[in-house]
What we know:
This protein is mainly α. Helices cover 74% and strands 0% of the residues. It folds into 2 domains: 4-58, Arc Repressor Mutant, subunit A (Orthogonal Bundle); 65-201, Tetracycline Repressor, domain 2, CATH 1.10.357. It is globular and about 55 Å long.
Amino acid sequence: MMDLGLRERKKRATRRMISDTATKLFTDRGFDRVTIDEVAAAANVSKMTVFNYFARKEDLFFDETDAAQTLIRDALAARGRRSPLAAVQTLARDMVATQHDLAKVTPRIAAFWKAVAESPALRARTRELNEELERDLARLLADSVGARTVDPVARLVSGLLLGAWRVAFREALRRQRTGHAATKQVLRALLDRGFAAARAAARHSPYV
């Protein structure tokens, strides 16, 4: 019998392979010009297998959303005596410094977001994911301090941090496209400004 750990690793590898194959097709040809049948053929799996791993076509493109939530959850769980905001800021800085897939700016990442900009379906899904992540971050912040409900301050902090992330990442992408160097430094500097704003907004709360 296959070991459960091995089975899970195989499933994750298959999911990642399908997603990577789809992303390459989408960035090369455009999201709306690629069908699920073509993704399945390129990945050498059946169409049913694709849908076993991804409920909708857009989810093939945005396969890192759960990873972001897991990173934040783990950072808050391991924060020790640090405040929730300090723990999340350390995570953000580490992601930028180590060029984590969710925080690096490369020609491939620029092509990814260009494909999003050119597809109404992907733009709509991006808005949905941003709203979901904002709700999830507020809930994780509240949970980290033992709050029974998500209070307005947690929602405010979540909105400020994710807004700062979007602005910082878009500016880094813009600089990358125009050939400017030091995109990593720009990303970190703008994120630090966002965290400063969040700390000011959360003053006298358990989040700072």
